[in-house]
Amino acid sequence: MSTQTTTLSGRSIIAGHEVAGSAGTTRGIDPATNAELEPSYSLIDEAQLAGATAAAEDAAASFGALDPETHAGFLERIAENIEAVGPEIVARAGAETGLPEPRLNGELARTTGQLRLFAKVVRQGDHRGVRIEPALPGRTPLPRPDLRQRRIPLGPVAVFGASNFPLAFSTAGGDTASALAAGCPVVFKAHNAHPGTGEIVGRAVTDAVRECGLHPGVFSLVYGPGASIGQALVKDPAIRAVGFTGSRAAGTSLMAAAAARPEPIPVYAEMSSVNPVFVLEGALRGDVEALARGYVTSLTGSSGQLCTAPGLLFAPAGEAGEAFVVAVERALADAAGQTMLTPGIAGAWQEGVEALGAQQGVDVVARGGQGPTENAPAPVVFESDVPTFRANPVLQEEIFGAASLVVRYASAEELADAARSMEGQLTATLHLAEEDHRTESALLPVLERKAGRILANGWPTGVDVGDAMVHGGPFPATSDSRTTSVGTLAIERFLRPVAYQNIPDALLPAPVQQANPWRLNRRVDGALQLADAPTQEPAPEGDRA
Amino acid sequence: MSTQTTTLSGRSIIAGHEVAGSAGTTRGIDPATNAELEPSYSLIDEAQLAGATAAAEDAAASFGALDPETHAGFLERIAENIEAVGPEIVARAGAETGLPEPRLNGELARTTGQLRLFAKVVRQGDHRGVRIEPALPGRTPLPRPDLRQRRIPLGPVAVFGASNFPLAFSTAGGDTASALAAGCPVVFKAHNAHPGTGEIVGRAVTDAVRECGLHPGVFSLVYGPGASIGQALVKDPAIRAVGFTGSRAAGTSLMAAAAARPEPIPVYAEMSSVNPVFVLEGALRGDVEALARGYVTSLTGSSGQLCTAPGLLFAPAGEAGEAFVVAVERALADAAGQTMLTPGIAGAWQEGVEALGAQQGVDVVARGGQGPTENAPAPVVFESDVPTFRANPVLQEEIFGAASLVVRYASAEELADAARSMEGQLTATLHLAEEDHRTESALLPVLERKAGRILANGWPTGVDVGDAMVHGGPFPATSDSRTTSVGTLAIERFLRPVAYQNIPDALLPAPVQQANPWRLNRRVDGALQLADAPTQEPAPEGDRA
């Protein structure tokens, strides 16, 4: 009810201090009205940026060595601090992004939920990857030394906020949460499309750092002039890894900068995916109207600005496929355009739609209505066929927003060939019935090579944040198919193994000490040993009988 | 005794077939005599290479889906086939590399041992990384879908043989073994310094592929014209990852080629390390002569051509340090030069030694004797101090071979500063006594950031192949500090996670099927469940009382 009112400072927060930038200013814009929002945000220059990275470097050792309870408590404190200003965050994010309140409330809950999930991961401790091989002095031909392995944080991480998730992929979003959980300080480059949202959340994180008595360099939030400060951040020698969600052009430019450093560093960029949906014959013997509505709902939610929006759908040629397309037309007719994130994104969407529509063999088959606000174009669905799709790479390009292409296929072989011809994807979705299992069995190994997540009879939007999620996939979906940016596995991106050989126990870090003070699961001589496993000792006498 | 005699063909083996190359020839050279060895090896061109990568791509699906028993049996069969021609391999490798027979016998045992270790890993199955979150239809605000994660092989891997380990880091060495264990076909680029050794081992692998009934594209061995075929291999679209051990120049050039591909791929290059040894004050109150002998033995073994040879040692200024240097001088005087791997490597060593000796503030303090063969220069130890070391990057450069630099430090602070100023390393070694624990406690967090393995009171050469080993480290030690090239963790380099959402059980791959037919350990709802854990069900009545 009573929302707190933070006076926005329009400044970066570097290691706990507000810093006014000297490299120009920027402002949030309400995309529903194109009105500029207060305050203006000053942009920092490279010298000011170096202050943030130096503080992060300075914080790395103490932060990386935190005990699990303090560490987990810090992540939970961030979540609490965010919740304390939740309504304010949602209101500001709504003004800056045009995203509807229920979506932002959901995203806020996801953001705090994933911080708490990573707190659980930190307490549980399996990410520390402890492996122990005790000394075998009598082994022949050579004795075995005592060897103990654990994973340590990489060091300071640069995180770039995404335009389309002002909370869950932004200031305290998945990249920040997983990097902090790994024990890496974070220098966060705010997205200039939602600077005020970034500041409110950044203060919540900064407060948590202070309240938990941590080194202030653990977190900085910087506003900078677009690409130039991003390049400077990735090139900074103190930075050891990069988390990014955004466009393919921006992501590949960060990858190139990281690879060209004197000491190259890993970049985890989540970039571009059209998320193909494969509708098999059997699925169209069910409720075709419901299937079409599901497609349109998944496509138009958040104005199509989700990384996993279904930008491509394969439907059979012939009558059943035709009935599906007609159903899509009906379903889309009821859908009105929603405000897009920025005028620039709406403009790029328009250009993408015009370019796709201008391709030979591509027709518009369905269109929704224009939305009532600025930047709320009518969603659109195109249609083509597999030969056209395979011959023209423009048909594979992501159009960020509510536009999708239905590609009609003539046979299971044509469908598999189309799948094989595709670039890497975040997701691949199958709609199928029992009778389609043979087609699907041939398709599944192809899709495994192409995508990070494979779904059946659902829609790819709505990414569950948990232990088994993969939000990743081969390039260009991401820069590194070995990882995920959503879910607990994301913490592994920011860790590396170190082995300790014959180090006296008193000098060993806690995770590999013989007494196992943190009660970690460990792999001993190649076999997992659970810390909380029932002991193998016989129960005391009194417990028998 | 009776060694089989394989007639060497001088040809590449592409997917089971001998292929004569059309891009010139090369020959092995006996470095002890500089004599050319028979036969000459024909080098393949890029079109022939494409045959190998296409076959690997073709083999990827069936090989990646092998059941654990067949898969492990294949790795064991390679080991058996290698053992069957063991004496022949050792004889040829000795002629091609100048390495002594006991060293090569040890390396052969390591090679077959690590193949069998990976067979165990494949049977055990933890590398598949299974995570399961069963559906929660009643979860609010949204139901949870059924989510199952496993890791799948990346696809065909290019492996480059190392000059200094003609067996354990070559044709069927650690990179090949771990890639095959992950389920990735391998295209192996033979090292032109030991082509005959490569062919004998390559036949053993090829035979195993055939004997196990696998797709012949699972393994190819190619001879090619140095750098150009290597670049072509890394750029080939069928190749999904690269394993390499060798020089910093060659490694960084492969990294650049991989990053410049339309679809970048990971490169695991193990390159350059001087493996600093930190001798603390207390260690010199013990047996200084033994310490010096240990250093010289570790430095001169295999003519100093080990990735982990101690190329740099920090000793205290003052009397105790002086006594150590004198002891090194005595120990090295007894050491004769041993044949180096190739005339080119011996020449590069000579240049490196001359360059280091020419630096201001660097003096020779100890020298061994020239060896009796060609290419067997006298090992040498230089001396300098921390200020000189910190001011001149030449003093940090690896000299591949038996040359090392003793750097004298004036204080614990100076030592820590020197450690902080260093590049990434494979190893860092401490010699210390109880009284040094305070100095060491300050040093350890610095060394963790710099090295993949930290040892106490031993020597870095002699890398144990096991579960807890890390043979890796920050750049330039390797291209990717998140991994190891030795030990079971190496398999993780060639895997990526895939999530399955609501896929019918009948369509799921075995590792994530509900019935767990491969009896894998799994992470269920975030907690590890061991396949062989005692069941939690109450014991039957008869067992109580």
Automatic annotation (TrEMBL), chains A, B:
Gene3D superfamilies: Aldehyde Dehydrogenase, Chain A, domain 1, Aldehyde Dehydrogenase, Chain A, domain 2. CDD domains: ALDH_KGSADH. Residues 24-462 form the Aldehyde dehydrogenase domain. GO terms for molecular function: oxidoreductase activity, acting on the aldehyde or oxo group of donors, NAD or NADP as acceptor. Keywords: Oxidoreductase. Residues 526-545 are annotated as: Disordered. The keyword Disulfide bond does not apply. It comes from the Bacteria. PANTHER family: ALDEHYDE DEHYDROGENASE-RELATED, SUCCINATE-SEMIALDEHYDE DEHYDROGENASE, MITOCHONDRIAL. This is 2,5-dioxovalerate dehydrogenase. It comes from Kocuria dechangensis. The lineage of its organism: Bacteria, Bacillati, Actinomycetota, Actinomycetes, Micrococcales.
